[in-house]
Amino acid sequence: MNAKEISLEEGKVKPVVDHLNDLLANYHIYYQKVRGCHWNIKGQNFFTLHLKFEELYTAALTTIDELAERILTLGKSPYSTFHDYIEKSAIKEIQTIGLKDTKMVKAVIEDLAVLISKEREILDITAEAGDDGSNDMVNRFMQFNEKNTWMLRSFVNED
Ligand SMILES: [Fe+2]
């Protein structure tokens, strides 16, 4: 299967796939970080943040699967090893054991900024390639991340 079978130009799809794969790697590292926050959260915000982190990593899991399957739909292979994820991701792992609750939230806000910036770049690339399917999908991810940035920033009381 190649991009031609869904009426897209093979050459134009290459940068889309490369960027979707890069985003996939970033989401994997982000996913595990948020999962670590969910496990290791302590203190009076436990019940609020334990639940919020679960909502975020559950959404990330769906996003990861959608990204990988979009790459396959475009006729290419998604990165599938942690070796690749760690090597390619701009988002880096952190130790969440013993991390203060507000520091966890700030770490997640920072990662969301990276994801949003990458997603905004992909919107341009997919528009250029005429790939409305990827464009629409990534736009949804970005809007979810934007909204959660607002909520998490409100939680830590930052403008
Ligand atoms: Fe859990």
TrEMBL record:
What are the record keywords, sorted? DNA-binding
A single Gene Ontology MF term assigned here is: DNA binding
Family as reported in the entry's similarity comment:
Belongs to the Dps family.
Organism, as annotated: Mucilaginibacter lappiensis
Q: Which residues form the Ferritin/DPS domain?
A: 18-157
Query: A single Pfam family, by name?
Result: Ferritin
Source organism's superkingdom? Bacteria
Q: What is this protein called?
A: Starvation-inducible DNA-binding protein
